[in-house]
Specification:
It is a single chain. By secondary structure, the chain is an alpha/beta fold. It has 2 domains: about 10-140, Response regulator (Rossmann fold); about 150-205, Arc Repressor Mutant, subunit A. It is built from 10 helices and 5 strands, in the order βαβαβαβαβαααααα. Strand 4, helix 4 and strand 5 form a beta-alpha-beta unit.
Length: about 210
């Protein structure tokens, strides 16, 4: 199989076996996907991720033991920029918000058609965020930041009062790259300067001031 046609490797984390079986069948039936591992709780999910290094983690938020949001945090702490798509029955604005704040890339509700889930897997794998309109309306006006993990790093260093030059040195980047990141951050947060960006970042829960 050529590299270009490499399949999206999926780790499926859900404690409902029937649902998992259905999803495995659906995903494996797609030409560009394969489920490489399954887990029915958070700890097994971390273990499975370590072993298989999948491209996308499809994750239920409510499971016995470790909750989904905690799993997302642990995955990101241990493995960096992990691509997590939350697939859950429950979608209160708060829960969705916490999942995104922990680092989820997308959110699909279980009663949506299966095609939506498959589409979401492809979208988050391509680096996009996937928030269905019915979910974003529940976010009660909270804006989910579209910032990349690198942009979040840059913004948190801006918030610590570092200059572009210092940020560049800290992140091992060229100063010009930091400027590009800053321009993107201002654009995405729809603000005009660094101070407003910090305020917007704190307000949206993207960064915490120490």
């Amino acid at each position: 199989m050529s590299h270009a046609s490499r399949k999206i490797r999926i780790l499926l984390v859900d404690d409902h076996i029937v649902l998992r079986m259905g999803l495995v069948t659906a995903a494996n039936g797609e030409p560009d996907m394969e489920v490489v591992a399954e887990a029915d709780n958070g700890l097994d999910a971390l273990q499975a991720y370590r072993q298989h290094r999948p491209d996308v983690v499809v994750l239920d938020l409510r499971m016995p033991g470790m909750g989904g949001t905690e799993v997302i945090r642990r995955l990101r702490d241990d493995f960096g920029d992990v691509c997590v798509l939350v697939f859950s029955n429950y979608a209160s604005g708060e829960e969705v918000f916490q999942a995104f704040r922990a680092g989820a890339r997308g959110f699909v509700v279980k009663d949506m058609p299966l095609e939506r889930l498959l589409e979401a897997i492809r979208r988050v794998h391509a680096g996009e965020q996937y928030i269905p309109p019915e979910i974003s309306s529940r976010m009660s006006g909270r804006v989910i930041s579209q910032l990349s993990s690198r942009e979040v790093e840059v913004l948190s260093l801006v918030a610590k009062g570092l200059s572009n030059k210092e940020i560049a040195a800290r992140l091992d980047l060229v100063e010009g790259t930091v400027k590009v990141h800053l321009t993107n951050i201002l654009g995405k947060l729809r603000v005009a300067d660094r101070t407003q960006a910090i305020l917007a970042g704190v307000k949206q829960g993207i960064i915490q001031l120490e």
